[in-house]
């Protein structure tokens, strides 16, 4: 990588193609070829975001001691303690996210956007694609294993980012902060109204559309991602040059695929009764989530519904000791929104 002219944290696909052709002494690479490679290999691509606002989709791991103290069953259901937990995680995670978006960061684009951009020069990110995958601090564009920014800033005693200091004494439960083990970000959604971006929410690139919402016509700005907006970091470019890209694993895109995969293999060390109970639990969860049109059923609530249903069947003797232990049975078929920490956001 020392041979790259004027090394930078990130490059446009056109700039990256020029460097690849020069260094590898070929006339092969262009923007579309790099997009196609990202469909096949584990190549991460980004856009630059600054001055935007968003919300993060996440799940959290807490210490075993904390989980024991806040067991929902001990409190007879969801209480103010659990509400403070959700508010603490949600407040800090989104404060950290918007701190990065305010100063400028890279947002990783998902495979769905890459697929569209290999065929077209632009895509409407909000209506065609729901979420960015994660963020990258520009300072870490040369880094192989960037830190989990959300976890690092969450666990720092001081100083917190200014926005967190502002919220610290109002919504933050210190016990939750001290008991956090890990934060996993599943996606980042930029703020919107309905399925459309408003003038105040976004900077370029944007496009005006005349649409009708609930019978009222209005002009709104759609967030358009152009092929020329796609960026590749210095580290990702180095992986192409060094020939260390890895072919992506086959995607499991539907709940049915996951159910079939699970039931086609008999787990070792389990009784047939246990296997049948787990298959029944997954079938119930699958049915309820597929019919959850308002996308409100979180994984914890689903565990309770599955538990209540199976208690009335021949599978009740195979149920684990705790309701939340059912998460291990159904986690891999849960849709992304069901794994989000806190309450479901409204738009």
Compact overview of the structure:
With 347 residues, the protein is an alpha+beta fold.
Textual characterization of the structure:
The protein is an alpha+beta fold. It has 2 domains: 184 residues, no CATH class; 85 residues. Helix content is 42%, strand content 17%. The protein contains 15 helices and 10 strands. The strands form 4 sheets. A 3-stranded antiparallel beta sheet has the order 2-4-6, with helices on one face. Strands 5-9-8 form a 3-stranded antiparallel beta sheet. Helix 5 packs across helix 8. The longest helix has 24 residues. The C terminus is likely disordered.
How many strand elements?
Answer: 10
* Estimated helix fraction: 40-55%
**Main beta sheet:** 3 strands, antiparallel
Can you list the strand order of the major beta sheet?
A: 2-4-6
Distance from N terminus to C terminus (CA atoms, Å) equals 44 Å
Kindly state the mean pLDDT as a whole number? 76
Rg calc = 23 Å
Instruction: Sum up the overall morphology in one term.
Output: elongated
Spans of at least 5 consecutive residues with low confidence: 192-205, 252-256, 265-270, 342-347
Strand content: 15-25%
Order of helices and strands: EHHEEHHHEHEHEHHHEEEEHHHHH
Count of distinct structural domains: 2
Query: Tally the helices: what do you get?
Result: 15
Structural class: alpha+beta
Which features characterize this protein?
10 strands, 15 helices, three-stranded antiparallel beta sheet, alpha+beta, 2 domains, 347 residues, disordered C terminus
């Amino acid at each position: 990588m020392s041979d790259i002219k004027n090394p930078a944290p990130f490059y446009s696909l056109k700039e990256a193609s020029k460097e690849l052709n020069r260094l590898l002494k070929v006339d092969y690479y262009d923007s579309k070829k790099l997009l196609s490679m990202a469909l096949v290999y584990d190549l991460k691509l980004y856009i630059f975001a600054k001055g935007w606002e968003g919300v993060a989709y996440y799940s959290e791991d807490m210490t075993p001691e904390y989980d024991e103290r806040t067991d929902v069953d001990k409190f007879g259901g969801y209480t103010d303690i659990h509400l403070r937990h959700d508010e603490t995680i949600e407040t800090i995670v989104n404060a950290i996210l918007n701190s990065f978006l305010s100063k400028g960061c890279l947002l990783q684009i998902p495979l769905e956007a890459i697929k569209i951009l290999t065929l077209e020069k632009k895509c409407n990110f909000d209506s065609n694609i729901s979420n960015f995958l994660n963020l990258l601090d520009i300072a870490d564009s040369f880094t192989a294993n960037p830190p989990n920014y959300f976890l690092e800033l969450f666990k720092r005693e001081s100083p917190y980012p200014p926005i967190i200091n502002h919220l610290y004494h109002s919504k933050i439960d210190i016990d939750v902060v001290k008991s956090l083990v890990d934060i996993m970000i599943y996606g980042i959604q930029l703020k919107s109204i309905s399925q459309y971006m408003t003038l105040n929410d976004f900077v370029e690139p944007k496009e005006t559309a005349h649409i009708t919402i609930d019978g009222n016509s209005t002009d709104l700005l759609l967030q358009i991602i152009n092929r020329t907006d796609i960026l590749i970091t210095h580290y990702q470019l180095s992986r192409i040059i060094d020939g260390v890209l890895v072919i992506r694993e086959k995607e499991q895109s539907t709940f049915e695929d996951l159910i079939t995969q699970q039931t086609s293999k008999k787990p070792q060390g389990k009784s047939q009764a246990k296997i049948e109970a787990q298959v029944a639990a997954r079938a119930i969860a699958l049915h309820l989530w597929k019919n959850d049109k308002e996308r409100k059923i979180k994984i914890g609530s689903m565990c309770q519904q599955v538990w209540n249903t199976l208690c009335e069947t021949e599978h009740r003797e195979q149920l684990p000791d705790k309701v939340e232990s059912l998460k291990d049975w159904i986690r891999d078929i849960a849709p992304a929104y069901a794994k989000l920490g806190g309450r479901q956001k409204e738009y």
